[in-house]
Each structure stands twice: as C-alpha cells, then as structure tokens.
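Final paragraph of the annual report: two paired records, presented back to back.
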Amino acid sequence: MAESTKPLRVVLTGASGMVGEGVLLHCLQSPAVGHVLVLSRRPCGHQHPKMRELLVPDFHNLSPIADQLTGFDACFFCLGTSAIGMTEADYTRVSHTLTLHVAETLAARNPALTFCYVSGAGTDSTENGRQMWARVKGRTENDLRKLPFRAAVAFRPGTIKPLPGQLHVLKLYRRLSWLYPIVRTLAPGFAGTVSEIAQAMIHTAQRGAPKPVLEVRDIRALAA
C-alpha cells in the first residue's frame, strides 16, 4: 500500500472512553491528521479547530447522519464496553451488531477508507473459545475484514497507559498507574500506551499495516 502524505480525515468513536479520548488527543496534536469527526452519544469534553463533534443518539441507526459520513480516509473505532454482567446476545448487539452497522455505513460511502478497530488482547479469532467476550470480538474482527474497505485492521491492546490530563480514565487505572513501568518491564508484550495505539493507527491509515491483527508488540513496532 502506497503511503499517503496528505493530512488524514478521520472518523473517531469512543472519545468519551479512555482509549478513544487518548487517541483523539494524540490525533489533534499530530500534523498527520487534518480533521477529526467525533461520533459520540454525549459530549467528550474537548474542543479543537481540527475537530467536529457529532452527537449520535443511536449508533444502531446512522441513517439520519449518513450523508455527513463521506470524504474520510480512516475510522478509528475505539467504542467498546465491558462484557461483565451481560448475556452473549446483549454483548453481541453492543460489540458486534453496532460495530458492523457503523462499518457498513462508512464502507458504502468511503470505499478507500481504512478501518482501525480496537479489539483486545486475548480475542478469539476462531470464534469457538470458552470466553464469551473473546468469541464476540473475534467474530467482529473477522466480519470487518469482509467489508469493502481499503483495509480493516484489528488492534489488540493489553494494559494501557493513558495520556496525562485525560478526563476519561477508569479509576482502577488511576490507582494502579504506578504499576505500569513494572508491567512494561516484566511483560513488554502486554503493556503499551494510548499514544502508541494512536500513532500505529495513523501509520496504518497512511501506509498500511503488516498484518490484519496487531498484538501489543506489533502496535508498538508500528508506532515507532
């Protein structure tokens, strides 16, 4: 895939979550990104000349805003939720059906778009494993690659270090932030930063990724 040198026009989801917010902030500071359209259910708490926020009441029905989703180079899909306490049917609706609806809507209007999907370490590509969330994420990854994008790439982060000053950081991450350097040293294949995820996404949109599923080490290498 030839590298693109023009500033990227990016659709981003999940900006009110930790990963999505961090990716957004990195993109706003990157000269490689010219414009970010944030799709969100509620205001993400950030404003910037390169950013436009579009509030979406129902991500399962994008038809009211579909005409505004054209002319983009990439989607950084960071929207996600925990499977704790959810049935497989409910988690599938949120993590698979919703994701595919957004992806299909974008694919129909942006055939040259690169779709970067934040999955998770331990995702099950066979769709047959014991862990429900891993099966659903694996099915989502597999189905995204069937869509007519320029490329669809799954990012599987493990432990993530957020950016300083982020508004949307899980309390557990705040309390255990001191452990991050230790985890990175002892288990480098499981720890990365949100900036590495964002930079790897930018590089993927510009010049492609070495493979369709990126684990933590792959993300870090691509970000370098």
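The closing record of the year follows.
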Amino acid sequence: MSTNPVVGTSAARRVPVARPASTRGQRTRQKLLDAAEAVFGRKGYHEASISDITRRAGVAQGTFYVYFASKRAILAELVRERSRNLRRAIREATAGLADRLEIERVGFETFFRFIRRHEGIYRIVNQAEFVDRKLFRWYYRRLASGYARGLAEAMRRGQIGAFDPEVVAYCLMGIADFVGMRYVLWEPDGPPAHTMDQVMRFIRRALTGGPA
C-alpha cells in the first residue's frame, strides 16, 4: 500500500481550530488529540464526552476550548491529522524505491505498523461516516488519490498491468483494511511473516498476471 506521490482531490469541510504558536501550546493540543483518539476508540464518538478527553489528557476542561470549538471539531482534526501522518509515514518509507511491487510491500508493512500504534483509528474513521460524511469520504479519497497516481505511473512504465488505477487503489486499500483488522488488531503480536508473503503473492498475481 503506497500513497506516493500524494495528490488530493477533495477537501473535508474544515472547522476552525486554533494553531498554537508556542511549543507548550502545540504539546497541549497534541495531548488532546491523542486523548481523543483513545477515548473515541474505546467509548465511541457519541458516548464520549469532552470531559472524558480532558481527563485523559490531564488538562482542565476549559483548556479544550482554547484549541477546539466542539467534540465534532476535534474528531475532524483527529481524522485529518492521522491521515496526514499515515500518508507521510508511507511516503517516507517508500522514498527512493522504484519497483512497484516493492513499494506495495513496504507500504503495506508501514500501514500495519501505523495501525498497531493507532488502533482506535479504525473505529474512529468508521464512526465519522455517521458524524460527518464529507470527512469520512475525504479520508479515503485522500488516500486513494495519491495511491492511484503512483499506480498509474507504474502502469506507464510497464511494471504492472493496465487497469483503471483508481479502481485498483480502492481494491488494494480494501485488502490493507481487512488484513490489518484481522492480523494486526486481532493478533497480539501482529501479522506473522507468512501473512505478508501471502498478501504479496496475491497482489503480484493480480497486478502482473505473472507467477506468484
């Protein structure tokens, strides 16, 4: 799974949020985002409260409103920030790689490491569909747009077969999503080596039509 290069096609509706200039303010804002991820992931968006978030972050409840206007605003910023961080992690991990299948393997492995660190993001993104549908669609479209651009370039170079790159991007994202859920979130030690080998065997056959 790779989103390199990253090119956006649409933007989620943005709720104004404070951008602290000081290092201390940035740390406090990040603590609130990390706390929101933990609370939303555990309790769900509708059951979670702002006081749950501030208690988890170890800050006064009034501090929340210095950075975010509402619970919905911090959800939106959390989804956007985790999307940026995921795409950056994959972009950095695959930088300098030329072979598309190698890019896919490194991209998938990077994605699995990311969701191991941010397990709550699965539940949070799914809930976003019922809180802010535009945000939910933005999350996946933002991932898919850069992914499709990289696949199209690999097709142009003859590294993989000729397909509709957007369709392939969503197919591969679906593989990453469900394999990650089964072998990363459900397994205490993450995916065994043979799981990644099986995933890449399938992808190689699908993208090239060649031997696994």
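The chain has a mean pLDDT of 90. This concludes the annual technical report; the extension proposal builds directly on these records.
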